[in-house]
């Protein structure tokens, strides 16, 4: 089933971190000096996305488990450098205090926002892309989600690495031009290349260009590893040795890099609200947290799509 308007599947942590770091705290605060820069910035991003993409459905994905145990069991270094203590992520205190406010505002507006225990927001987004009627537009600044791009199914990534105002509307051709691999092999490419920001070391001596060449010639990681056993596969001796030494790592890193597509999601209604679900609650939140301008812009965007 293909609908004329897209589902916007929003990586909420990606956007609220970006909003927090992009807007000075002193430029967005309450009369008592409480920062609301992340909330204001996030709401303005959502309003802009609604105005420009004109979706008929919208869902925000959350990190119920930002560092899932099953991924850590496979690659213990996964996001280890971002642990504050125990299994708690390093989050600026002034951002952490704003997240509950943001979720209250979204609930008052009627935009579903949820995570699933044991999974990251990426996995919720992957499952939405795999299970919801097309077209689906995933919104994130996380390049790992390029793997979800699927022209045949109608899934695109609206990559906001440079901000929502400078979205890269990614289809497979863009992924191929940007990284030298088709979207379906992006996770394999990433497993070999590594990603220091996620604590993934990659294969020693294999950078982005070499990883892209390997994928282009042999396909995914499983095919590359299988080709190692063929003396006529055409590997340079040094590269063959590096890959052979990393066989165990790649066997474990690939499922870490792959976004889950089969998460059991809670019941939700993705239909874009045409007006706030609870206008009184939204008004109270806007007054308490000095969010009147951002709330109005979001409400106006919703009514504009309805028009």
From TrEMBL:
Pfam families: 5_3_exonuc (PF01367), 5_3_exonuc_N (PF02739)
GO MF annotation list: exonuclease activity
Domain of life: Bacteria
UniProt keyword list: DNA-binding, Exonuclease, Hydrolase, Nuclease
Residue intervals of the 5'-3' exonuclease domain: 5-275
CDD domains: H3TH_53EXO (cd09898), PIN_53EXO (cd09859)
SMART domains recorded: 53EXOc, HhH2
Annotated function: 5'-3' exonuclease acting preferentially on double-stranded DNA.
Protein name: 5'-3' exonuclease
Taxonomic placement: Bacteria, Bacillati, Actinomycetota, Actinomycetes, Micromonosporales
């Amino acid at each position: 089933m293909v609908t004329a308007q897209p589902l916007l599947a929003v990586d909420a942590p990606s956007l609220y971190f970006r909003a927090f770091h992009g807007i000075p705290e002193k430029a967005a605060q309450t009369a008592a000096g409480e920062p609301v820069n992340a909330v204001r910035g996030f709401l303005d991003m959502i309003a802009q996305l609604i105005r420009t993409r004109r979706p008929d459905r919208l869902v925000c994905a959350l990190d119920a488990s930002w560092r899932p145990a099953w991924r850590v069991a496979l690659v213990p270094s996964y996001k280890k450098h971002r642990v504050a203590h125990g299994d708690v992520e390093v989050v600026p205190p002034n951002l952490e205090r704003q997240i509950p406010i943001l979720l209250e505002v979204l609930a008052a507006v009627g935009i579903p926002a949820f995570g699933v225990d044991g999974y990251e927001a990426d996995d919720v987004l992957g499952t939405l892309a795999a299970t919801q009627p097309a077209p689906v537009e995933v919104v994130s600044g996380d390049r790992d989600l390029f793997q979800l791009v699927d022209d045949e199914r109608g899934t695109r990534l609206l990559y906001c690495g440079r901000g929502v105002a400078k979205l890269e509307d990614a289809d497979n051709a863009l992924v191929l031009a940007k990284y030298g691999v088709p979207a379906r092999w992006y996770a394999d490419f990433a497993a070999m290349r590594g990603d220091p920001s996620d604590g993934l070391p990659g294969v020693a001596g294999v950078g982005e260009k070499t990883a892209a060449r390997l994928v282009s010639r042999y396909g995914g990681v499983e095919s590359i590893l299988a080709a190692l056993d063929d003396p006529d596969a055409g590997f340079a001796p040094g590269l063959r040795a590096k890959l052979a030494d990393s066989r165990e790592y790649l066997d474990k890193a690939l499922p870490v890099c792959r976004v889950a597509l089969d998460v059991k999601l809670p019941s939700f209604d993705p239909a874009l609200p045409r007006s706030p679900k609870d206008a009184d609650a939204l008004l109270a939140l806007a007054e308490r947290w000095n969010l009147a301008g951002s709330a109005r812009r979001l409400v106006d965007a919703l009514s504009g799509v309805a028009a």
